[in-house]
What we know:
CATH class of the largest domain: Mainly Beta
Strand content: 25-35%
Number of domains: 3
Number of strands: 32
Radius of gyration: 34 Å
CATH architecture of the largest domain: 5 Propeller
Structural class: alpha+beta
Oligomer: single chain
Strand order of the largest sheet: 24-23-22-25-30-27-31
Shape: flat
Amino acid sequence: xxxxxxxxxxxxxxxxxxxxxxxxxxxxxxxxxxxxxxxxxxxxxxxxxxxxxxxxxxxxxxxxxxxxxxxxxxxxxxxxxxxxxxxxxxxxxxxxxxxxxxxxxxxxxxxxxxxxxxxxxxxxxxxxxxxxxxxxxxxxxxxxxxxxxxxxxxxxxxxxxxxxxxxxxxxxxxxxxxxxxxxxxxxxxxxxxxxxxxxxxxxxxxxxxxxxxxxxxxxxxxxxxxxxxxxxxxxxxxxxxxxxxxxxxxxxxxxxxxxxxxxxxxxxxxxxxxxxxxxxxxxxxxxxxxxxxxxxxxxxxxxxxxxxxxxxxxxxxxxxxxxxxxxxxxxxxxxxxxxxxxxxxxxxxxxxxxxxxxxxxxxxxxxxxxxxxxxxxxxxxxxxxxxxxxxxxxxxxxxxxxxxxxxxxxxxxxxxxxxxxxxxxxxxxxxxxxxxxxxxxxxxxxxxxxxxxxxxxxxxxxxxxxxxxxxxxxxxxxxxxxxxxxxxxxxxxxxxxxxxxxxxxxxxxxxxxxxxxxxxxxxxxxxxxxxxxxxxxxxxxxxxxxxxxxxxxxxxxxxxxxxxxxxxxxxxxxxxxxxxxxxxxxxxxxxxxxxxxxxxxxxxxxxxxxxxxxxxxxxxxxxxxxxxxxxxxxxxxxxxxxxxxxxxxxxxxxxxxxxxxxxxxxxxxxxxxxxxxxxxxxxxxxxxxxxxxxxxxxxxxxxxxxxxxxxxxxxxxxxxxxxxxxxxxxxxxxxxxxxxxxxxxxxxxxxx
Length: 752
């Protein structure tokens, strides 16, 4: 016997009504799979939070610009100034040793124009690029593309310098159209100043004339109704020559094309060269123009850009050997500019695609060049990699849950009980008749069967199973941290921090000896890549010094061999140091470059003080030397350890080797300790105001713990000697107990 079908009338044909399934009272949210996923999300969220707070280096330049400088897929281009005896011997402005007291830029360093300085006019800029010089006597004007952060199109900005490029006044926007503008080629003809910007978005090549230089321009003529890219006009052999890359055609790769036109006037009309297109080749060959051509020793040179690895990867220089209406020939020559090997930490460490070099009346050559620290499309690439990492984490979480038995199958529909409620008859009919649904159910069935086999192989209660689960968990944590870093960690660059719109450099100085070679090599390799490091000076106190070729360094390394092993050598006057700022940093301390750059920024704000990363509070009766936790307990400090501190090399070294400090230096030699304590007392003795500033590092590692070559191995003895120093120096130079500075008194978030 069986159940009789129930016939439902009303449609002319009967339909069998299916009895309702017994309702399962277990809700989906109470299933083991759902609970496991919630716990996994919470756990990974905690791991991500710990990673962000304690490990991932903060690189938020909140003080750089309140507007502009947004993350842009086109990059973070900036502009630098270069000088040389010829266009083939250009050196960056920092090599000119130009100092500016107002911004504590000793010396002034590239870049000199950035998105932050361009945004200072009130019009936000994401980046600045394509610089062209126009020189009037001793005044430099630079016209450049500035990408508006709101409209996301290029405008033409202009800046002025009256001190040979050391400082720049932003004058504002010289040209703004309803379409994208860039490559503002500026030249003079018949007493007028003209600009030939790229207007390919308009589909025209347009010539503008200055009516009130440098901020007011009017359209003089539409030169061509072609979307030309990066065009310039030059006189040669009685004619004017127009070079550009034509973007006409859907499949045209204008980065690989070059065409030439000629005329008897820079205003046209223009005739095409017989060999057009001159180039239609690989985009890495430098076909697309990369700046103003120049004449040197009777030869004409063209600047091209290599767009092979990424857009604007590097500049290539070509010497024009033949330029006639029938023929054109050029050969590549070396420009002589040395590329930075600091990578993303350098403002131009990844790419540079534009150069304008001109000769001054003095015979010296000056050039402006743009550069970027990230490749084209970097923001999108990081986002996609971050999302891929998060998806990988999701897959590993499911795999982990299946292995534990918390997740019953690999398909999400199988995580909850099937009969959580009644489904409609129409839904059931569709499921039975749909070929797609049937195949999906079959596929899911096979997939879930595979999950059972997987669980059978990975047995959590066995040693091998536990090892596999541990490995899965570890990989998931690594992928999660990687995803967070890619999505929220920025470009990975540890940038320098400007002060009043200017950048500078410092010298890194460390004191060591032959037993610490391993520490020193790792130290040089790491810190030489920091953006503002100009030179590393190694004070060699004992043993055979290493060869310079043994170091992997992005900056010059100089080893200063001392005659006797003395801690006083750390502060010896050194006329060869080219910067005002010196970072005294022990070779066993490793910290992120961003921490170093933040410390340098604070020192430039307070160059009369010792600015460092390890605070101490000397107090009590009798005076006693204690660790940092004592200073934090009393919310203040009056000393900064100079094993990791910025100082004015002139002031600090002269103070230390003054007659007043002679008795203190004898104490240092007798105890082989306390040179940093002595310098703190000398600073305090020479000033009535605060003499120390603290900067909290994101993290710091003592590498001597791994090598066993720490100078002070016994902490108790070390602290005892330092307590004696405090008492002796207080008798010699006065007490510093009343010179306490509180944590977080600067309110910049860096001295907490």
